[in-house]
Amino acid sequence: DQQVKQNSPSLSVQEGRISILNCDYTNSMFDYFLWYKKYPAEGPTFLISISSIKDKNEDGRFTVFLNKSAKHLSLHIVPSQPGDSAVYFCAASSNNDMRFGAGTRLTVKP
Amino acid sequence: KAGVTQTPRYLIKTRGQQVTLSCSPISGHRSVSWYQQTPGQGLQFLFEYFSETQRNKGNFPGRFSGRQFSNSRSEMNVSTLELGDSALYLCASRLTSAANTGELFFGEGSRLTVL
Asked: How do residues B31-65 score in pLDDT, each as one tens digit?
């Protein structure tokens, strides 16, 4: 049951440009959303989150946007840096459940 | 403060065997979740434990089981291993009991290869 979907398996951008990663969810009970970054041979690390009472949250170069009516969230990275190259997972949670998408592999080219 | 610790980091088993993986959460964290990561499937939720009780379970066969001890350490067991069980098994802990109030902290995972 794919309650959280990341339809783009990979994304390639040039250094300095914007990276936009997308995520869709189906369960309307989800009210807290997170993005994680994962490097090879490491566990995922938390990046940024957003509550359903907001539609935008910013942290430095990272901004997450939430469109509840469309059940869609996106992560913007500006400007993108080669060190941002990793797999990005979005997650959606309700009180007792957290589900992850399949991930998007971001490659930032120098 | 020590992070989430998983052991062993790597292991190789043959079909039909069983395996036990261990996870020590961050001190003070009582919620422990397990995920399976395979290429193309992302992080598939296995189960979550809180205060020694299984609170939630994903869509995996009964061969996959887990438990949590009074010190919040958790183990997961996979019996009658199949080739398709080859994956990275990730453990994560959380300080809060509610899944929508804080982030999960992940360990580095246990890489299982089934031959």
From this structure: 999 999 987 778 899 999 999 999 989 999 999 99
Burial of A110 (0-12, 13-18, 19+ CB in 10 A): exposed
**In this model, does residue B27 exceed pLDDT 90?**
yes
Q: Report yes or no: A64 and A55 within 8 Å, Cβ to Cβ.
A: no
Q: Could you give the CA distance from residue B101 to residue A43 in angstroms, rounded to a whole number?
A: 21
> Residue ranges of the alpha helices (H) in B3-112?
none
Residue B28, sorted as left (phi over 0), alpha (psi -120 to 50) or beta, turns out to be: left
Q: Which residues of A1-29 are buried (b: 16+ CB within 10 A; e: fewer)?
A: eebbbbeeeebebeeeeebbbbbbbeeee
Please answer yes or no on whether B43 and A31 come within 8 Å at the CB atom: no
Amino acid in the structure at residue A70 = A
Across the interface, do A100 and B90 touch by the CB < 8 Å criterion?
no
Residues from chain A that touch B100, judged by Cβ atoms under 8 A, are 30-32, 93-95, 98
Distance from CA of A81 to the nearest CA of B (A): 24
With the CA atoms of B18, B87, A95 and A32 taken in that order, what torsion angle do they form, in degrees rounded to the nearest 10? 170
Rounded-to-integer distance, Cα B35 and Cα A52, Å: 24
Task: Verify whether the Cβ–Cβ distance B99 to A95 is below 8 Å.
Answer: yes
